[in-house]
Request: fold
Amino acid sequence: MNNLSTDDIRQTYLDFFKQKDHTVIPSAPLIPENDPTVLFTTAGMHPLVPYLLGEPHPGGKRLADCQKCIRTQDIDEVGDESHLTMFEMLGNWSLGDYFKEDAIKMSFEFLTEVLEIPREILAVTCFCGDDDAPKDEEAAKIWIEVGIPEDRIGFLPKEDNWWGPAGQTGPCGPDTEMFVWMPDSTSPDGLRGASEPKGNPETNPQGWLEVWNDVFMQYNKNADGSFEPLKQQNVDTGMGLERTAAVMQKCGNVYETDRMAPIMEKVNELADADDLTHKRIITDHIKAATFIIADGILPSNVDQGYVLRRLIRRAIRSGRRLRIEADGGFTPMIADEVIAQYGHIYGNLKDKSKEIRKALSNEEQQFGKTLKDGMKQFEKAAQSASTEIDGVTAFHLYDTYGFPIELTQELAKEQGLNVDEKGFNKSFEEHQEKSRAGALQKFSGGLADHSSETAKLHTSTHLLNAALRKILGDHVYQKGSNITAERLRFDFSHNEKMTPEQLEQVEKLVNKAIEEDLPISYHITTVDGAKEEGAIGVFDDRYDNEVKVYVIGNDQITFSKEICGGPHVARTGMIGKLKIKKEESSSSGVRRIKAVIEGGADEVEFAEED
Ligand code: SER
Reply:
């Protein structure tokens, strides 16, 4: 087995799939664009949902990448050997191209011939079947063919061996997961089983570490809950980079891998107490926070900013358990190490290092000041509570001392107490801060929603972008876009507040384009080709070499030409009417418009290739 570094594994994976005719695409940002249903990119497939639903991808039918991901549903498990909030996911996709046989064969070849993991320590699981879909004998048969013995194949239900659909309805299917035996001897903290592999993850879950998941999207889930076979069968795979590194480097846990260990080491240097779990929490959370800030988010009480705040404050509290002073210098020091380990792959960590240090330092100072007093308040409340911390106290801890409710819940749990969450929410709503509730709702939501409403709002942002450039000038560039089911939010470069007249002109121009019912279509070209034909775009390293350019216009006028993944409505007339609700400052040199649309088609058609 090769002792590969994390960088080697990443590169080897991408090279392997490139050689198998896959187009290697860059990691999308952590903050999904134009997707109202989730706060963070949670899997490699997430930015690819439109293409899994049938939009053609400019890179073709075979794609591969390494996607940075954030998953906070596992936050309580962070601190064990294998769960992380922030991780990198290697993935390969077939968009209606190859299916089970090739996917499994390529996975097996990569695991056994490239990584040289002995087949004796590999096991897999397949879907066991239920009323919706049969047992996945097909996948199991292919595994046996390539050389996995029958007793290393487990069969598990939907919770384990099924992925999707992306939203309430859509493509989904059984998956097959690949596991590596982690013998006891590789783990300093007692991870896993005996030295010899035993059974499979169905018969003996202890000891097997999941590293890869091949999802076979062969069904469409209908609104009535039924499943019917899909015409375009896709493959979506995801391999955990840190876990694979733990296997290859025989260290038994992700925190001792070559890129994570130096961050842990930094925490160790600062800590004045021994507690592995808290050290790991700090390592994971500050790494996640560093990446999130680099992607443009600052701590706040809403949406991604709230999650970021929660991660930083949780790390600071773990720091306190390790007797690390939080006076503004602790978290930036850890972030420096994160940047040193990952800056060569994710360039924006280096570019934004100043902002990252500053944001962390501010948050640390702010929370550091109230943490001690808040802890005193908490202790007092805990002492007088019999089973539960009441909602008013929990809200007071949040409002006055900056304790996220989740932190209070954790502290309470350590003392065998509950927190009256309903009471907390009641106090919260009384203070009219509905934003957090919104954040949580979104957080538990499904993946991308490509509804008619979203497409209408998305096309509206293109119209708005073009209109702003026509009225304000060519210095206007999109700096960000966020769409919920109710509204669009569009950030753009411009130095001063827009006048009411300018706003009116922009709104009029957009609505004129809507009234003219202009057709929308796209074509595929190279990044350079797109630049040459005057398409607007962000032009940073987020684009693949091949891009889609959406054109809004007819033979007489081209209203807008923009690089974008789509989807969009087929004609502007489907949108209805745009109303600008607000224009405000977003950050220095960046303005923000919030707008809604009224009327328009209930069910839209989508723009197609020219
Ligand atoms: N979407 C699947 C997962 O996240 C495979 O990439 O596991």
